[in-house]
Design a protein that fits this description.
Blueprint lengths: L4 E10 L3 E4 H5 L6 H8 L3 E4 L6 H16 L8 E5 L10 H9 L5 E5 L5 H14 L6 E8 L17 E11 L4 E9 L7 E3 L20 E3 L1 H22 L9 E4 L4 H11 L10 H4 L6 H9 L8 E8 L3 E8 L3
Parallel strand pairs: 4-5, 4-6, 11-12
Antiparallel strand pairs: 1-7, 2-3, 6-7, 8-13, 9-10, 12-13
Helix pairs in contact: 3-4, 6-7
The protein binds oxa(dethia)-CoA.
Oxa(dethia)-CoA binds next to helix 2 and helix 6.
Length: about 325
């Protein structure tokens, strides 16, 4: 019997217009363009307009996907939104996007896995395609990081940006699409990268709303060490598991947190720099948004059958790698 796999049949990305450059940040915190560029690879990032929410990103992403594929919103069965910056604590932003974009026959949910949000979501979506119950699933990875960043904290504001993207998953019998995944987590890492207040541990009160606990906290050095090791290990592991040599890999689509983490991952995989998708200099770290933004930007350079490794590491800790064969 032929195996059904989940092919990516369309991709779309979205970033807001407003640019926040390293030079802009020099006016907000004690930092400089040289430090940010050499330590992270980032030159600028995007910022949502006032009042622009995750669902607004989502609707633009979905509309572009539907247009590219030439289908209507009512044809979508399911929407998964990997994000940590939803419109509300509840309801899920997936519900809001379905409503705003007219996806009347879809159900969906949000998935909280920080920078691994797109990978986790993609893997769940592909299972629903493989089991035959769903025919068209939109998987989104996007974040409005500016809504939870403290622009007085140089440890975090220099890295993060707003944006994201999404893909359409559809069944195929030709062996293309998602081939394999390795996903991991370690909750012991939560103390090094988190938003401390606003959850049930410490709900927002009049008093704590004035404190920095409402923003992203990151102990950068510790996260960096874990990211370099785990993202590189898992990317190498998925290659080994699937008998892929560096020559077999057409592209690495790595989470864009820091150019040094990306380089370490590519080195460990033994792949050439020319095969690494990179856009960190323009968009910074958009959390769950980085990988679909890469696929969107590199779409024209991808060929049917290309072996692509997606890899991420982020808050949680969460990390993983997914091996796909590009389907168009
Ligand atoms: O996206 C998911 C997970 N996140 C990540 O993967 C991010 C991982 N972490 C990182 O990318 C890096 O740790 C950062 C980019 C956040 C920081 O870079 P670093 O090389 O780890 O810097 P550091 O925190 O070790 O600081 C080095 C020095 C310190 O000065 P001293 O103590 O050596 O005198 C800092 O005070 O750089 C100083 N520093 C800065 N200087 C200018 C820290 N932040 C800044 C800044 N501008 N923004």
């Amino acid at each position: 019997m032929t195996k059904t796999t989940a092919a990516i049949t369309a991709v779309n990305g979205y970033v807001p217009e407003k640019v926040l450059s390293n030079h802009d940040l020099e006016k907000l915190v004690d930092t400089n363009d040289e430090w940010i560029t050499s330590r992270t690879g980032i030159k600028e990032r995007r910022m949502a307009a006032d009042g622009e929410a995750l669902s607004d990103f989502g609707v633009k992403i979905v509309e572009g996907i539907l247009e590219k594929r030439g289908i209507g919103p009512e044809e979508i069965d399911m929407v998964i939104v990997g994000s940590i910056t939803g419109d509300y604590r509840f309801p899920a932003t997936a519900n809001v996007i379905c409503d705003k974009a007219g996806m009347k026959n879809a159900w969906g949910f949000d998935l909280s896995a920080a920078c691994s949000g797109f990978l986790y979501s993609l893997d769940i979506g592909r299972v629903y395609i493989e089991n035959g119950t769903h025919k068209k699933i939109i998987v989104i990875g996007a974040d409005v990081m500016s809504s939870i960043i403290n622009y007085k904290d140089r440890a975090t504001c220099i890295i993060f940006g707003d944006g994201g993207g999404g893909v359409l998953l559809e069944p195929t019998e030709d062996g293309l699409g998602v081939q394999d995944s390795i996903l991991r987590s370690d909750g012991a890492g939560r103390e090094f990268l988190l938003q401390k207040i606003g959850g049930s541990v410490e709900p927002i009160t009049k008093e704590n709303a004035q404190t920095d606990g409402q923003y992203v906290f990151q102990e950068g050095r510790t996260v960096f060490k874990h990211a370099v090791k785990n993202m590189a290990d898992v990317a190498a592991e998925i290659m080994e598991k699937n008998n892929l040599t560096a020559d077999d890999v057409a592209w690495l689509a790595p989470h864009q947190a820091n150019l040094r983490i990306i380089d370490a991952t590519a080195n460990r995989m033994g792949i050439d720099n020319s095969k690494i998708m990179i856009n960190i200099e323009k968009f910074g770290n958009t959390t769950a948004g980085t990988i679909p933004l890469l696929l969107w930007e590199y779409e024209k350079q991808l060929n049917k059958g290309d072996n692509i490794i997606l890899a991420a590491f982020g808050g949680g800790f969460t990390w993983g790698a997914i091996y796909i064969k590009w389907a168009y």
